[in-house]
Amino acid sequence: MVVAMDDILGRPRKNRTAALVARLERVSKNYRKVRALREVSLDVHAGEIVAALGPNGAGKTTAVRLLLGLGTANTGRVSVFGGDPRNPANRLRTGAMLQVARVPETLRVKEHIDLFSSYYPKPLPLAQTLAAAGLESIQNRKFGDLSGGQKQRVLFALAICGDPDLLFLDEPTVGLDVEARRALWDEIRRLVARGKTILLTTHYLQEADALADRIVVIHQGSIIAEGTPDEIKARTAGRQIRCVTSLPIASVCAIPGVLEVRSDRDALLIGTTVAEPVLRELFLRDPQVGGIEVTSAGLEEAFLALTQDSNQRPEER
Amino acid sequence: MSAASKTFTQLPLTRSLGRTIAIYAKETRYEFLRLLRLPVYSLSTIMFPVMFYVLFGLLLNRGHEANGVSVAAYLMASYGTFGVMGASLFAFGVGVANERGLGWLQVKRASPMPPFAYFTAKTVVCMTFSLIIVLILLVLGTVFGGVHLGGGPGFRLLATLVLGAIAFCAMGLAIGYFAGPNSAPAVVNVLYLPLSFASGLWIPVEMLPHFMQRLAPFLPPYHLGRLALGAVGVASGSSILEHWEALAGFTLICLGIARLGFQLDEDKTYG
Description:
The complex is a heterodimer of chains A (317) and B (271).
Chain A: H1 5-9, E1 20-31, E2 34-45, E3 49-53, H2 60-67, E4 75-80, H3 88-91, E5 94-97, H4 109-118, H5 126-133, H6 148-160, E6 166-170, H7 178-193, E7 197-202, H8 205-211, E8 214-219, E9 222-227, H9 229-236, E10 239-244, H10 249-253, E11 258-264, E12 267-272, H11 275-285, E13 290-296, H12 299-312
Parallel strand pairs in A: 3-7, 3-8, 5-6, 6-7
Antiparallel strand pairs in A: 1-2, 1-4, 8-9, 10-12, 10-13, 11-12
Helix pairs in contact in A: 5-6
Chain B: H1 17-36, H2 39-60, E1 65-66, E2 69-70, H3 71-101, H4 104-110, H5 115-144, H6 151-178, H7 184-198, H8 210-215, H9 220-231, H10 240-266
Antiparallel strand pairs in B: 1-2
């Protein structure tokens, strides 16, 4: 079941005329033969939290790397705070949590934070950074002795310790258990409440839904959908109907609104965006239809629906 | 997409000199701690030259002479060079290969760290480990090997080797930008050990086969070795300036190679 998180969180709609903090303008990036980004345009405004949602290898990390000035776009323009992301003054206002395979393991948690805090003009006090990332009890442990989730929290601490205005969080909750993930979400919301701007990448629809004002769905280097969580869910939260019917598959496929049909033992699995019209038609065509179950499709199906959608559309750009 | 109604004015980078120095100092301090707590580095880079020196310089060749000075004095200079080279090659070669290949360097580059602080810290730490190694050799040679260099030459030996470490920091940097995290230690060893031998750091160049004697002047450790030997009183065929020039040229070539590696690295994807 997908619950409308907006009501629970009481998210206000962000003012779209707020200053533009980060921008990609028709940006393409190739790595050798791989086209990582194709003419991607993305705006992030002050005080906004934008989620780049997509499967692994979609180009999310590449977009973040370009906005951090860690690589150069082949075509298009990348700007942060209206200027070059490599500008040292912009870096003073930016924090980043990247996917790192290994961090120097012989330094202690608080030593790592102490060093990164020193890079910034007005860092948070050590105690505040430790508390925000939930690291108080392990501040004297060496990085190499931490669990995967604890390491992830240290990387989060390094991103926020300088109290930056703009934060890039690349897959921040990978490897976290449910409790730690919720804690990190709370912390991210607290940052936004303090006026920070955040671009986060994730491959969990649930995470993007729980946090973001706006979701940008990236697939194979292109943005295939963009909108508020509700708008995205309306497009992605497909339904699956399981039923036993004597109708042939071909005739079920012909029902308007049906995306795909698979046979599952004696039943049929029907994928659709909205279940009710399809059900109505099913009853009309086969009054004997039975064993009906309607479930909401998982993220996999949701992506499938979105990507099919984008494949059908001719190249717009 | 809605156009932005406000834009940001570009602020100049405001960081006082004092703060900048503080960052460099902190970066250096933590790089030193990082390596000190890594026994595979701190123990092996200090232990190997000291062990070899004790064995070949103080125990096995007692009272012998080489090139007009005692073996204890000769090997103090050559194993000092060997130690300095190892400390720099491993700290930079393996360190940079790891931090670059496994993503840590990206986090540092994305941060407001002054980029030069990263390299300066590593260089100063290599020079510090070099100083420790040479000091240990100097004390051991003086106390147990009957080497009496005196203040001037002793200081010259220390200064020469600590300064010479920079050339091998550059070489390590070049290795670090081309070798992968797993292959870097092997690459460093494959270069380090044969280079040391062929440069006359284990046995005097004059005792090597003739073709190797002809080859040695093309190897950078040979030049630092000659400079160190000069400090303990071994005469060299070339002038001090020529040896320093060779090391400086080698350093620049390595920095150029590292720069190339940096550019190639930028085009690699990390997912």
